[in-house]
Amino acid sequence: MGLENKKLFLFDIDGTIAIGDTLYNGSRELLSYISSVGGKSYFITNNSTKSGTDYVKKFKNCFGLDATENLFVTSGYMTLCFLKKHFSLQKIYCLGTSSFIRELKNNGLTVTEEADDDIACIIAGFDNELTYRKLEIACELLSTRDLPFYATNPDLRCPVPFGFVPDCGAICEMLRSSTGKTPVYLGKPNAAVVDFCLSDSGFSKEETLVVGDRLYTDIACGINAGVDTCVLFTGEAKKEDLANTAFSPDYCFDTVTDLLHALRTGN
Q1: How far is Cα 190 from Cα 222, in angstroms, rounded to an integer?
Q2: Phi (first) and psi of residue 153, to 5 degrees
Q3: What does the alpha-carbon distance between residue 190 and residue 174 come to, in Å, rounded to a whole number?
Q4: Which of 85, 156, 200, 259 is deepest in the core (most CB within 10 A)?
Q5: What are φ and ψ of residue 67, in 5° steps?
Q6: Chain-centre distance of CA 96, in angstroms?
Q7: 199-249, pLDDT tens digit by residue?
């Protein structure tokens, strides 16, 4: 199927349709166009600093966009689903933001930020409230106990208005360098993110397009799920990166507006 036949759009947020509290030019029009042709947009972000509820508020207050919580499939949410399935009755050590920890607790999980004796697993998220003490505790647990180690996402850096800041993958690299332990990542490029959206929306793989700015998470996620992908050169990926990547997108555009034009014209 060509672009004109796509109905389900799975958008990354940071560096793809927005940066910080600023919506990119064309994003509002693109989302409106998708809705007008009977399509649906989900937001599959690896940013675990915010819950779905937080993103609803941000879209409303910062972007002037109305969206329901179920449209935000964050790496934090995918991690929550995994932990509920495998560690629902056990204690979890979490290195993450207060919002992420609150979301886990609100969904019935037992979470600690201390090196308690009865911890069953370790989870690390993108933590923009990171302290050295949090890193110390994580290193202690990883060094002295044989515990399963998970993380929300492998992104090394997160786009912000002035450039980039360390993301979850960078935090986990610090932990790996100190302890030799590498986590299992639960967000993109895990295909479960796309599978969730397909099941929730009812659209087919052929009707689906993953749109992002990062090759090794966004585009890899779509490839792993067997759906078409589109990279926008609005964030991390650059045109020259396409020559040496294992994650080649089906489509690529310079801006959100260029993607919108292609959808409207089929070119």
Answers
A1: 9
A2: -165, 150
A3: 22
A4: 259
A5: -150, 145
A6: 15
A7: 999 999 999 999 999 999 999 999 999 999 999 999 999 999 999 999 999
What is the Cα–Cα distance from 190 to 63, expressed in whole angstroms?
Answer: 28
Name which of 52, 62, 75, 94 is nearest 152 in CA terms.
75
Count H helices and E strands in the chain, helices first. Answer: 9, 14
Place of tokens 């609150």: 102
Give the largest CA-CA distance in the chain: 61
Token look-up 């969730």 returns 196
Per 3-state DSSP, what percentage of the chain is helix, strand, and coil (rounded to 5)? Answer: 45, 20, 35
Cross-strand pairs, 230: 211, 251
pTM: 0.86
Q: What residues contact residue 255 under an 8 Å CB cut-off, 6+ apart?
A: 24, 25, 26, 232, 233, 234
